[in-house]
Specification:
The protein is an alpha+beta fold. Helix content is 50%, strand content 14%. The chain is elongated and about 85 Å long.
């Protein structure tokens, strides 16, 4: 047999009884407060777990290596898409994730710009080094003369040289050049018969080593700058935490107790 309390009926003292929930005396049933988890809060907690300074610091060399590998593969025609994927993955992670540890917005943007410089330099220098290596190891060289310089206008101005050779040859007849090249200039063109890389003007033997050294230098600078950014973010966050603990809830400095 159910009691008055179980049925939710008024008791003898004329006070309303409710079967469940938080309530006020003689008031309506107030359901228990439920914790609302918004998507923004979940994303913030997730970002906090994935942006551990120690984890970011350990992943910086791997991301920098992706930038170097992407640049080295960019000179090969059939590896263009993988090179873009590797370079973009490493570069975007370095430029976005690492400066995100710096709490100050202006300083974070500054470190983002500073990281972008060695990242781009590493990719470009690695591409020049790999192209020069292929052309020197398996390429053919033929002398010619610049017959015409074509100027292309767009977002940027580019130049294309039409090369004339003595006799019949399979060497490329057109080549990207610069504004310093002129008609009747004697040039030496290097190209790969298999078409692995784009043709280019022949450089002195071992020039690719120079680009490779510069690429490694940019790679090292990228890693050190990334690690410094993580260190800077940790120091600034710790300093802000000390200031917050030393400040009272009402914004006034706390009073230290006398020893």
């Amino acid at each position: 047999m159910m009691t008055d309390l179980e049925q939710g009926e008024p008791a003898a003292d004329n006070r309303a009884l409710v079967p469940a929930g938080r309530h006020r005396r003689d008031g309506q049933v107030l359901p228990p407060r439920r914790r609302i988890r918004t998507r923004k809060a979940r994303n913030a907690r997730k970002a906090g777990r994935t942006t551990s300074p120690r984890r970011v610091a350990l992943l910086i060399p791997a991301a920098a290596l992706l930038v170097l590998a992407g640049g080295a593969l960019a000179s090969f025609r059939w590896m263009l898409v993988p090179s873009l994927v590797l370079g973009a993955a490493g570069g975007i992670w370095l430029i976005v994730m690492v400066p995100g540890l710096v709490p100050d917005g202006a300083l974070s943007r500054l470190m983002m710009a500073l990281l972008a410089v060695p990242a781009v330099a590493t990719a470009v220098l690695a591409a020049n080094a790999s192209q020069g290596f292929v052309l020197e190891m398996r390429g053919e060289v033929r002398s010619g003369v610049v017959a015409r310089v074509i100027e292309h206008h767009g977002k940027t101005t580019s130049y294309e040289c039409v090369i004339r050779y003595h006799g019949v040859t399979k060497a490329p007849g057109r080549l990207d050049c610069g504004n310093s090249d002129h008609v009747d200039e004697q040039v030496r063109v290097a190209w790969d018969p298999s078409g692995w890389v784009e043709p280019d003007f022949a450089e002195a033997n071992g020039t690719y080593r120079f680009f490779a050294i510069l690429a490694m230098g940019s790679e090292i600078a990228l890693v050190f700058l990334g690690e410094f950014t993580v260190f800077l973010g940790v120091v600034l966050r710790a300093a802000r935490g000390d200031v917050a603990r030393a400040t009272g809830a009402d914004g006034r400095p706390g009073v230290a107790s006398a020893g």
